[in-house]
Amino acid sequence: MSSAQQKTCFTLAEANQRLPLVRAIVADIVTLHRDVDERRSRLKRVQQVPGTSMRSEDSMHSQELKQIEEGLAADATRLTEYTTELSELGVELKDASVGLVDFRTRIDNREAYLCWKLGEPEISFWHELDAGVKGRRSLMHDSLSSDDSANDAKH
């Protein structure tokens, strides 16, 4: 197990330090996720047209549909690899469609998540472990400074 996998809690400074790499991975995930979803939807619509079923050996489109399906499977594998890469960094992917990730931390001597979404310049939110994105609270408005979070974060 790598040291990143062993580490379960981040300080705010540590999480923000990893953000450039996380941002790049998450941007790739969001782009690929949207592309895969769109292609799956189109493929499903095409497969519903009479004479284009993947199971129909005599369909003139069956080979093309098979190639599309294989491409989707390969891209799904890439998405899994990106998610694994985040996990190895100690980051949890919560929503691939918008690029939402969590970094486990300690706030007020309890476990919580530092929460970041693609497009945000830095980590500015946190939430309880069971609260999810709807429970996001501002780090600034809750009077938590980087130093407070750093003191609470345990390795």
Query: Between the first and last Cα atoms, what is the distance in angstroms?
Result: 15 Å
Low-confidence stretches: 1-6, 143-155
- Numbering strands along the chain, what is their spatial order in the largest sheet? 1-2-3-4-5
- What is the string of SSEs from the N terminus onward? HHHEEEEEH
Chain oligomer state: single chain
Per DSSP E runs of 2 or more residues, the count of β-strands stands at 5
% residues in beta strands: 15-25%
Return the structural class: alpha+beta
Q: Over all CA atoms, what is the radius of gyration?
A: 20 Å
Measured as a percent range, the helix fraction is 40-55%
Question: How would the global form be characterised?
Answer: elongated
The total count of helices amounts to 4
Compute the average pLDDT: 83
- What characterizes the major β-sheet? 5 strands, antiparallel
Can you walk me through this structure?
- By secondary structure, this protein is an alpha+beta fold.
- It has a domain at 21-91.
- The chain has 4 helices and 5 strands, in the order H-H-H-E-E-E-E-E-H.
- The protein has helices spanning 3-6, 12-47, 62-88, 146-152, and strands at 91-95, 100-107, 110-117, 125-128, 137-138.
- The protein has a 5-stranded antiparallel sheet.
- Strand 3 and strand 4 (125-128) form a beta hairpin.
- The chain is elongated.
- It starts with a helix and ends with a helix.
- Mean pLDDT is 83; it is low at 1-6 and 143-155.
